[in-house]
């Protein structure tokens, strides 16, 4: 693999992140140049895997075959190190191998993500919260673990906190996207929770907004907020370079959770979220905070 092909791979990842990552791309700018590039690579990898599993134009068999091929190519690329013909592999792979080696990211994280996306290919239902938490680890927790390797950490307690942080973010997505997910045959809320509040999968499909639903959502929001509070200790375990972007992500995802509460849990009527100007402001504040710290550290 030539230096030029590695450069092209990084350029591909940065372009994809800039085009599709939205405000998160700008929050990446709070990091040092090398970390910024690595976050773009991480995003590009996760985005490509997600797209392979979530293409509505392709059948279940086609999507599963694509994910298996991706897994096989990743195994071959990792086994070959940097000595392979980049023409055979996806353009993000050279840069991915580079950040895995540079930041000592465990390889199995990237296979865990594939397993998580594979579990989404068919109708989804989880009996217990523990089962749901396992799914959240595969699609979000491992992302948090990759991030702390890129940002830098000084305490092994960062691993558990990173998984809890990913769980909080993914649960926020699940609560926000209840209607979109059920349309695709996915109900992530555990059956044990639905039964506790006498609500059902068919009630979600019919978008029945009543006291049962509000009580269910209040329960889920409170549990999710507890994971936010529990995982906030992650800020103390990572390097200052990553603290700004993590705080920004807490504010953005936490803001979505707050919005769900403000609309009295009615996620059926509208999609909860922060306005674009607010997310840009949060990202901008993260950049300013990071640059201010860098200047102080240089003195």
Write up what this structure looks like:
Keywords: Transferase. One of its GO terms (molecular function) is geranylgeranyl diphosphate synthase activity. One of its GO terms (biological process) is carotenoid biosynthetic process. This is All-trans-phytoene synthase. It holds the Pfam family SQS_PSY. There is one protein chain. By secondary structure, the chain is an all-alpha fold. It has 2 domains: 1-122, no CATH class; 124-299, Farnesyl Diphosphate Synthase, CATH 1.10.600.10. Helix content is 73%, strand content 1%. It contains 15 helices and 2 strands. The chain has helices at residues 3-20, 23-28, 33-53, 60-80, 93-103, 108-118, 129-151, 158-176, 178-183, 191-196, 201-205, 211-231, 234-237, 240-262, 276-298, and strands at residues 124-125, 186-187. Strands 1-2 form a two-stranded parallel sheet. Helix 3 crosses helix 5 (93-103) and helix 12 (211-231) packs antiparallel against helix 14. The protein is globular, with a radius of gyration of 20 Å. It starts with a helix and ends with a helix. The model is unreliable at 292-299 (pLDDT under 50).
Task: Tell me the layout of helices and strands.
Elements: H1 3-20, H2 23-28, H3 33-53, H4 60-80, H5 93-103, H6 108-118, E1 124-125, H7 129-151, H8 158-176, H9 178-183, E2 186-187, H10 191-196, H11 201-205, H12 211-231, H13 234-237, H14 240-262, H15 276-298
Parallel strand pairs: 1-2
Helix pairs in contact: 1-3, 1-5, 3-5, 3-6, 3-7, 4-6, 6-7, 7-8, 8-12, 8-14, 12-14, 14-15
């Amino acid at each position: 693999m030539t230096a030029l092909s590695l450069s092209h791979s990084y350029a591909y990842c940065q372009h994809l992140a800039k085009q599709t990552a939205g405000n998160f791309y700008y929050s990446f700018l709070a990091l040092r140049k090398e970390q910024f590039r690595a976050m773009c690579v991480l995003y590009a990898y996760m985005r490509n895997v997600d797209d392979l599993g979530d293409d509505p134009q392709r059948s279940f068999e086609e999507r599963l075959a694509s994910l298996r091929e991706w897994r096989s190519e990743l195994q071959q690329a990792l086994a070959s190190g940097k000595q392979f013909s980049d023409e055979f592999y996806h353009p993000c792979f050279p840069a991915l191998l580079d950040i895995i080696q540079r930041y000592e990211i465990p390889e199995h994280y990237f296979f865990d993500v594939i397993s998580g996306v594979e579990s989404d290919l068919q109708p989804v239902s989880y009996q217990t919260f523990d089962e749901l938490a396992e799914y959240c680890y595969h699609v979000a927790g491992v992302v948090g673990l990759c991030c702390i390797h890129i940002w830098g950490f000084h305490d092994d307690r960062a691993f558990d906190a990173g998984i809890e942080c990913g769980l909080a973010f993914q649960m926020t997505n699940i609560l926000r996207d209840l209607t979109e997910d059920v349309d695709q045959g996915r109900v992530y809320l555990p059956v044990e929770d639905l039964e506790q509040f006498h609500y059902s999968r068919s009630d979600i499909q019919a978008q029945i907004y009543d006291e049962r639903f509000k009580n269910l959502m209040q329960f889920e929001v409170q549990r999710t907020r507890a994971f936010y509070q529990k995982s906030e200790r992650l800020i103390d375990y990572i390097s200052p370079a990553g603290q700004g972007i993590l705080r920004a992500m807490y504010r953005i995802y936490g803001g979505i959770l707050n919005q769900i509460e403000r609309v009295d849990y009615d996620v059926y009527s509208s999609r909860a979220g922060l306005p674009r100007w607010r997310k840009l402001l949060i990202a901008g504040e993260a950049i300013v905070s990071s640059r201010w710290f860098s200047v102080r550290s240089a003195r």
